[in-house]
Structures are given as C-alpha cells and as structure tokens.
Specification:
This protein is α+β, with helices and mostly antiparallel strands. It is built from 13 helices and 32 strands.
Length: 681
C-alpha cells in the first residue's frame, strides 16, 4: 500500500511542540497591540501621540518564573504559573515555557480541613500575582500541568512615553495538554489553541517584568486576558536529580578528564544534582538470581524500588531519576532505560536506568571498537561514562540520533554508531565526545515539561521524529507480506500477526536486520469498518537497541511477529465487521526515510451467543490488554479475575480461551477425567 493518506495515524506519529528561534522585530511601536495603552483604571483608550524615548530590552539566558492572573480573577479562580526559558543563540533567541494551573485557595483543601478566617486572611496575604521569587527552579504537580508556550516573536526594541517604564513584547503559540483519565501520559494537538502576546514593563526590581497578556485572534482585535509577569531566577533552563546506586560487585563510571554526569548536563543547560546513594545488596525478592546473568526489565525495576530513598510519590516535587549499576556479562547489553510501560510494574514511566559494568564491547558487534574490543565497560572509563549518560538521557526521553538526522559522535548515538563514526575519523574510545549534540540540547531545553520530566509521558521512541509523508521514499523491488494467524476472529480474541519483508527485485536492497514493533521499525495499524484507524502502539518500546542496515539479496527475507490484540491507543478489534491490518516498515538509509508496507484483511464475527458477548465483555478491558501485552496476568488484578472467568468454562469452546492457555496466561487446564467402563457381571 504505497500511500501517504492519513500517514501520521498509520505510523503512530507523536507530536511534541518545540520552540525554535523567534522572529525579532520592531513591529508595532505602541505599548499594546491594536493602538491601545493601559491606564491605572484598567481602561483602554485610543492612543494619543506623546514624547517618546527608545527602549531596548536585553533578556538574560536561563529560566524565568512566569505568573498569569485572569482579569477579575477571584480567590477560587484558576490562575497559572510556571517557567519560561530563554536561550540566547547568538542570533534570535529561542523561548519556551510551561503553564501549571493553581488557585489562591483550593476548594478541595477547604473541603478537607477547617480553615478559620484568620488563616484564610493569612493565606491570601501570602499570595501574589507576581512571578515567584525563588532561588531554585520551581517544580509543580504533574496533574496541574496546563499548556506549553512556544515562542514565535519578540519585540525587544520599542518606544515608551516619557515618564513611563520601558516595555517589550513576547508572542507565543499556546498548546493545551490533553490529560488522560488516569496517569499523566497525555498529548498535544498538532495546532496551537491560540496565540498569546505578553506586553511587559520594566520594574524597579532587576530582572522582574510585569504587564498584561493578550489573546491574538486571527481576525479580531486583541483581547485582554489579564496580568502577566516574568522573573529571571537561574542561568540554567531546568533542574533535576540523579541518584546512583551500585549493586554489590558492580562498578560505576568514574569522572573522565573532569567530565561526569553533572558537567555533561551542565553543558546542556541543566542543573543536575548527582547523589551517590552507595552500594546496595541484592534484595530478597531477587534472591537466588545470578547478578552476572542478563537482567530482565522487571528485575531491574525491583532492584530500583529497593534502593534507599526511592519514592515515586516525590515526582511531583522532584525531577529524580535513579541509575543502578549492576554487573551483567559481556554480550547482554551496556545498559537500559528499563522503566517503560509494558515492563513497569507501577506504571510510573522513566524513573530508572541501568548501566552494566561487566558488559562492554564485543568484537563481534563492531569492527571499530579498536583497543576496547572484548573489554568490559569498567575497564574503558570514557566509553563507560558515555554509555551510562546515554541511558540517563533516555530517562529524560531522548532518543537515538539515528532517527534524528543520523548517527554522530554524541551521547545519544548508540555505542556501535559512535564507533562507526570514529572508524572514519578517530579511534574508539579516545575519540569519544562526552557531550549531547545541539539537537538533543534543544530538546532538553525546550521540549514541554511532561515530555522530559520523569513520571509523566512514557518513552516515545522514534514516533516523535516520524518523517513527513512527502519526504518518504517507497522502496522499489520489495514487498511486505502480512499474515494473521486467523482471517476470521471472534470479538475479544487475540491473534498472532507475522510479517515478512521480501526482496522480489533483481538487485540487493539496504534494509534493517530487524523489523519488530518494539523498535518501531515496524508500525502496525488497524482500520475498522467505519474507517477509524487504531495505531497499535507497543506496550514496550525498546529504548536502547541496535540495528544494522544490511544488503537484502534477491529472494531473501527478514521478518517479525507480534500479538495483535491491544496497544496503548486501544484494541485492534472492538467492533464486528471487516478490518484492514497494515504493517509499515520504516527505516533510514544515509538519513533518508524509506518505507515499505503490506496489509491483510481480518473479519470480526458478530456475536451470536451469550458466551460470545460474555467473553467479549471480559476480554475487551484495558487491564486484560496490558496483561496480554506483558505476558503476565499476576500484575493486573482486574485482568486476573477476567481471565479466570474466561477460562472457567471449557477453554476449547471459545478461541480467546485457547489463546490464553497457549500463552500461559491463567491457571493450568484441569485434567480431563477418563471414563471407567463397568464390567458386566
């Protein structure tokens, strides 16, 4: 299916607004848009010419607090506060911000406590509609997150009337965050909700600016929304914490030439406080396992939850990531950001990462490891520090650079990719650069808060860097064969899906050596009878994987499979009728996006019996979907009850029961009683 129609839906593209450099202009030289000035009475009157003086505003780089109070806001009215980030690029600045909702008096607090009149007066007296004056970058509750501000325009050279303060204006696109019913993994629309203009006056307090906020409709006069203020508080853009714990027998990466985690993030503009949590023993829950075996994601999560100070409830007041160092062994992996949805028992994403001191650089993996070939990480300090910081970068939701313009010698490029880059100009590990590249620095500074703060949006992988459809080249001479385990299914029945990339041409084709959904090199979507597309976003996105582009000879194939039932955006088959299942294989060659796709039809039968309806009602529940995706019912109590109910009858009477049995989900099948033939007398 070589089509660009509804491309973003079919490949599960994730949109994140992100600031770029603003347009700097003198623009309108009146204090407010539309030829209006403000008076103390709050009235706007036509502007009258007055003697003016020229004003130029120089904004400091770093983080500002921002505060907005709507016009005529009462004590119970929602107000907004947050942070604003200004990056001086050498040309036009890059500006972004985040709003969080709050109230001077929260009705829910009053409902839960008895407040006296003096207490209310004291609480109100301590409040202010001026941007917070604080010595550290503030952190607000995830659920109170409101919107992202993408800077678009700055008017820093203006005219002010004699006797009036100097002023300047900033304009933004505002993107409101759509919160989910539970948790924090929401989304942003691809277009802004509205345009905003801050008109800010200089004050007697250095680096504090106060003024008004306007909405700029496309075809109407600017609308006054209320007051706004910003206050510079830090040369950093954001702050976070990294706690490092070392399992007995493991090692953590040392500083290299003065570089360590803090200095690397300092270069990106983050104030990262690094804490050595000390050495920890294997928790009782993991007793009996060998620490030099390849670690599962679930076991890594269990280890993290056992370290001193671990408390996910603090993620509303602390941006904290845990890094655990474990031994492992050569050939498993150098590390993982293991706290991903499908393998995360507490469903709090991006809390932790692991680095493996006894794994390292197998010569069979790359011809460019040079003196590090077959060495363990603990013996190659520079590469060890780069790899561990790479995993911490994943915990702040940064992805591999192979999906963002190509591999380079920077931290978010996978280790084999860095070695390959150095193979053409440099040596491994001495030539490793211990920095994030400019693209990742921009993400860390200007992505919306939920995208980078731990415990908010889950790891999105390459879905966030999906190419525009016009930029995609459809591979010639290849096809994708899509084969469901059944072309006719019952409502609520999981099935298996296989796909194969086939070279049917006469020459070799460069393709990835793996095309599974966990890497998002393959994207599965289902179109129902009404035309609604459900992208089957995998429950687990592999955060740190490697793949190679290999020549696929004529007639050769590469394939993969998955369970087709539930994804993070819904179920594959929720309604009877004919469904179209599509697999898009999407990869890059020399930075150019290449795609191939195939499809198959699956008919979902209409329920005919009470059992059909009962099983559908039991199976089409999100917890059952998560359990099937995780291959573990025990972690989801609601799913366990439902699965047991499906299997309480004869499992062969409904194919959903047969699938659950085959996957080992649920209790073992009861032994069939053999009939006893009575002997005739």
């Amino acid at each position: 299916m070589r089509s660009n129609a509804r491309w973003e839906e079919r490949i599960g593209a994730v949109f994140l607004p992100e600031a770029d450099v603003v347009e700097v202009t003198d623009g309108d030289s009146t204090p407010n848009p539309g030829g209006l000035i403000e008076h103390p009475q709050g009235l706007d009157v036509p502007f009258k010419p007055l003697p003016f003086r020229a004003c130029t505003t120089g904004l400091k780089q770093g983080c500002y607090t921002v505060q907005h109070a709507p016009t005529l806001a009462g004590v119970f009215t929602a107000r907004f506060r947050g942070t604003l980030r200004v990056e001086l690029t050498g040309g036009a600045p890059r500006i972004s911000g985040d709003f969080y909702r709050y109230r001077l008096i929260d009705p829910s607090v009053i409902g839960g406590t008895v407040l006296t009149r003096p207490e209310l007066i004291e609480q109100l007296g301590a409040s202010s509609d001026v941007a917070d004056d604080t010595t550290t970058i503030p952190i607000y509750k995830r659920k109170s997150y409101n919107s992202y501000l993408r800077g678009t325009r700055a008017q820093l050279s203006t005219l002010a009337s004699r006797g009036s303060p100097c002023w300047f204006a900033l304009e933004f696109d505002q993107f409101t965050y759509q919160h989910p019913a539970s948790g924090f993994e929401g989304s942003f629309a691809t277009t802004p909700d509205r345009r905003l203009r801050f008109v800010l006056n200089h004050t007697a307090t250095p680096d504090l600016f106060t003024g008004s906020m306007y909405e700029l409709p496309a075809s109407a006069a600017p609308k006054l929304l209320g007051s706004v203020s910003i206050r510079w508080i830090s040369p950093y853009f954001r702050r976070a914490e990294l706690q490092i714990n070392t399992l007995t027998g493991a090692a953590t990466p040392p500083a290299v030439g003065g570089a360590h985690f803090r200095s690397i993030f300092d270069d990106a503009g983050w104030d990262l406080a690094v804490t050595d949590g000390g050495t920890v023993s294997l928790p009782a829950a993991l007793s009996g396992m060998s620490t030099t075996d390849c670690w599962s994601m679930t076991n890594l999560h269990t280890l993290m939850t056992s370290v001193p100070g671990y408390d996910p409830a603090q993620l509303d007041t602390r941006w904290r990531v845990h890094l655990v160092a474990v031994p492992n062994r050569l050939g498993c992996s150098r590390g993982h950001m293991f706290d991903v949805s499908g393998s995360d028992p507490n469903a709090v994403p991006r809390e932790g990462a692991a680095t493996y001191s006894h794994d390292g650089y197998p010569a069979s993996e790359s011809a460019h490891y040079d003196t590090a070939a077959d060495q363990q990480q603990r013996n190659v300090p520079r590469a060890f520090l780069r790899s561990a910081t790479h995993e911490v970068g994943h915990a702040f939701n940064q992805i591999h650079q192979g999906f963002e313009g190509g591999n380079d010698n920077s931290i978010m490029t996978p280790t084999p990719g860095v070695a390959a880059v150095l193979g053409t100009a440099g040596t491994f590990p001495d030539g490793i650069t211990l920095t994030f590249n400019d693209r990742v620095k921009r993400h860390l500074r200007h992505y919306p808060d939920p995208a980078v703060r731990p415990g908010a949006m889950a790891f999105f992988g390459s879905a966030v860097s999906a190419p525009e459809p016009a930029d995609v080249d459809w591979a010639n001479g290849v096809r994708v064969d899509v084969v469901p385990s059944s072309e006719r299914v019952r409502l609520g029945e999981p099935i298996s899906l296989e796909w194969t990339l086939v070279n049917e041409g006469e020459g070799t084709v460069p393709v990835p050596d793996r095309i599974d959904v966990e890497t998002m090199l393959a994207r599965v979507s289902v179109t129902d009878p009404s035309g609604r597309i459900t992208f089957m976003r995998p429950a687990v996105v592999d955060t740190c994987f490697t793949h190679r582009i290999v020549p696929l000879a004529p007639g050769d194939t590469v394939g993969a499979s998955t369970t087709l039932f539930w994804g993070k955006e819904g179920f594959a088959f929720e309604t009877p009728g004919r469904h179209r299942v599509e697999v898009v294989v999407l990869w890059e060659v020399a930075g150019a996006p290449i795609a191939a796709s195939g499809e198959a039809e699956v008919f979902v039968a209409y329920p005919l019996t009470d059992q059909d309806n009962d099983v559908a009602a039991l199976m089409l529940h999100p917890d059952v979907g998560r359990a099937v995706a995780a291959g573990d019912v025990s972690r989801f109590p609601a799913a366990s009850e439902r699965v047991n109910a499906v299997l309480s009858g004869d499992p062969s009477s409904h194919p959903a029961g047969g699938f659950l049995r085959a996957q080992g989900l649920g209790p073992p099948a009861p032994a069939r009683k053999r009939g006893v033939r009575k002997r005739r007398g």
